[in-house]
Structures are given as structure tokens and as C-alpha cells.
Amino acid sequence: MSRIGKKPIILPNGVKAEKKDLTLKVTGPKGGLEVVLHPKVKVNATEKELTVDIDNKEEKFDRSLWGLTRALIQNAVTGVVSGFEKKLEIVGVAYRGSVAGKKITLSLGFSHPVEVDIPEGLTVTIDKNVISISGIDKQLVGEFAANIRGLKKPEPYKGKGIKYADEVVRRKAGKVVKAVGAGK
Fold this sequence. Notes:
By secondary structure, the protein is of the alpha+beta class.
């Protein structure tokens, strides 16, 4: 049985959920999000909470949809109330970034600066070498942060690259050089 799917989703003050066909629209102080529902999943809405249910609790696929749908709705509710944020760190000599309008320009040791368009609905700021990505859609924030990190992943020898703020990069030892004349 899905333990996550059984939990009701509490709607805070100022958040409204509206079900129409196979979509659930959640609106709050920071904006609105839509969650597409699977036909096998039923969402029951009251004034202060939402419950998710399925018909066939014996089938594994249906149970997985039950927990997934509940988690997606909870993320939408959390997003419209407080939003989500990911922080990335740029590590390396002469590695830097700047935001101009709807573009991020990153200098990552390549022969050219890398420019990335910021998706609609996200706010990006760069303070020293820390990139802060925030928005109401958890999936969009995480995907954009992963795309930025993928431009120059942290390498294990010097730790240069773009890493998450809470990520620990395992360091490796470099080459060990033999002393000259020690083996004779």
C-alpha cells in the first residue's frame, strides 16, 4: 500500500485547488500551477484539504500512480506558497558568471563564454560565485539547475567546475612522482 498516497494534502490559507477534467489547478500567493492527473487517479477536494485515491489498490502500477500524484500535488502546493530554490557554486580560478536580462553568461575555462537562456517563471541571481535559482515549479527549478551543472561538472582532482552548494566532491590524489635516483 502507498503510505504517501494515503496522507491528505492540507491547503494553507490563501491556496485554492480547482479540479477540471484531468487537471488540477493550484493557485496561491506566488502564482498558479497545473498538475495533470492520470485517469486511474481520483482527487477529492474539500475546502481545506485534498485526498488522492485509486480504484484498484492491488495493482502495483496503480499504487505507484497514487503516491506519485500525491507528491506532485504536494509540490505544487508548496511551490505556490513558499517556492523552491537551488544553489550552485562555481569553483575554479577565473570561473565566473553574470546575469543580463533573461540570459546567464558563464566563463568556465572554454575558449568562449557560455550563454544560457533563463526559462520563463524562474529567477536567477549570481552573488560572487554562487548561482541561486528560484521559482514555484520544483521540476523546472531542478531541471534548470541540473542543466547549468552539466555545462562543467566538478572534476575530482582540483574540484573545478559547477557543483550544488550542498554537494561533496570526492577528491582523488594526483600522480605520484618518483624521486630521481632513489631507485638505484
